[in-house]
Write a structure and sequence with these properties.
16 helices, Alpha-Beta Plaits, 3-stranded mixed sheet, 5-stranded antiparallel sheet, alpha+beta, FAD/NAD(P)-binding domain, 20% strand, 16 strands
């Protein structure tokens, strides 16, 4: 690996050069460190080419939806941490909520849904809105106002899904390297530590003047020798424990506390999350239109996706190429409609994907709203046909998160 190539700028939505066109540049480097966050675009492309995940199970993901609420003075105990499990999920879907007491009398309230769910109408944003109506949560938020909103995918494969971390000229860190404690929903500390270890390795390589695979393999060894390794090892079976439902999962994870993460046994193999999704027929599920779900919200305590997107501060240049690439949109209006009821309109927490009439009797087509995107990458992960690819938008647009 010899560096990165930046994208062209000043391209309109049809791919034509505008008056402010600027060609991308090659940024060459002796060592390139990928710390792109969850489902990194370059990491995703490099992984099969370099076989970084050879012999490892696929990454498994969850999506977290989060709001910041401004409360009256004296209402929020700073530093309070509340974690919940289950409600309003069914017992076969893994996830839960959280409330964190912040400074300036603000609550951070959120809900996390594992993306190995079975029901194709599962809506992380909608579940978050229902969660806020629980009496305990509703009481804490009473009298408050919505301040900001965001969403993010979370890598929960952890220890078993960790890829090979180095290759000739390159290293990978943070969420892209599966460095996240799924039990505690904590990953920033590992991203920082892995970045420090990568820097040490790069510095050593510069001193030696050698940037080959053997030299950079010292990074893998540094990670193994650090506290990252035992922390991930202790929660290696956490997410998989809930494959048999909430109650068995709770018993399993309780046992893991006393068995250094073993629980009811190691489970180092699983299938990708999107393969768990059942069709409408096999799950006995009625298809639901996006418009139907958005009518449930009152605009006071619960909000539509568009209302939440508004407070996310998301901005994209309207006249630019879509950064959500659908390789075969005919699948959306045919197979996906019949088999899954177009789950993209549900799993996307930002109203990016809409199915609209195409002028034929009963016919529909996909309408993309990329300017709504909050960059969570759920669509890239959860699409049952794996035909959606998220790429960085031209010009670097996106959410402008406040206090998230």
């Amino acid at each position: 690996m010899v560096g990165v190539r930046t994208g062209d700028k000043g391209i309109d939505r049809n791919g034509n050069r505008k008056s402010n066109f600027e060609a991308g540049a090659d940024v060459r480097a002796k060592v390139t460190i990928l710390c792109e966050g969850v489902r990194g675009s370059l990491t995703k492309r490099l992984t099969p080419r370099l076989r970084l995940d050879e012999g490892r199970p696929p990454q498994i993901y969850a999506t977290g939806v989060k709001e910041i609420w401004q409360m009256p003075q004296g209402r929020v105990p700073k530093g309070r941490v509340i974690h919940t499990m289950g409600h309003p999920l069914d017992s076969g879907t893994f996830g839960g909520g959280f409330l964190y007491g912040m400074d300036k009398d603000r609550w951070a309230v959120g809900f996390v849904v594992a993306l190995d769910y079975r029901d194709p109408t599962t809506d992380p944003h909608g579940l978050m809105q229902t969660y806020k109506l629980h009496p305990m949560v509703a009481k804490l938020l009473e009298g408050g106002t919505l301040h900001s909103y965001g969403a993010k995918a979370i890598p929960e494969g952890g220890f078993y899904s960790m890829p090979r971390l180095s290759w000739a000229g390159g290293l990978v860190c943070g969420d892209s390297a599966s460095f996240l404690n799924a039990q505690r929903l904590k990953g920033v500390h590992m991203a920082m530590k892995s970045g420090m270890l990568a820097a040490e390795t790069a510095f050593q390589a510069l001193e030696k003047g050698d940037f080959g695979a053997d030299t950079l393999r010292a990074y893998d060894q540094r990670v193994r020798a650090s506290w990252i390794w035992p922390e991930l090892y202790k929660v290696r079976n956490f997410h998989q424990a809930f494959e048999r439902g909430l109650w068995m999962g709770m018993a399993d994870t309780g046992l893991q506390i006393f068995t250094n993460g073993l629980g009811f046994g190691n489970r180092p193999r699983w299938k990708p999350g999107h393969e768990h999704m059942q069709t409408l027929a096999s799950g006995g599920v009625r298809p639901v239109a996006l418009e139907e779900t958005q009518k449930r919200y009152d605009g006071d305590r619960t909000f539509t996706k568009l209302s939440d997107v508004y407070v996310s501060g998301t901005k994209h240049e309207e006249d630019q190429p879509a950064h959500l690439l659908v390789s075969d949109a005919t699948i959306c209006s045919t197979r996906c409609k019949e088999e899954y009821g177009n789950p993209c309109q549900h799993f996307c927490p930002a109203n990016v994907y809409e199915m609209v009439p195409d002028g034929r009797p009963g016919g529909i087509k996909l309408k993309l709203n990329p300017s709504n995107c909050v960059h969570c990458k759920t669509c890239d992960i959860a699409d049952p046909y794996q035909i959606i690819t998220w790429v960085p938008p031209e010009g670097g647009g996106g959410p402008n998160y406040a206090d998230l």
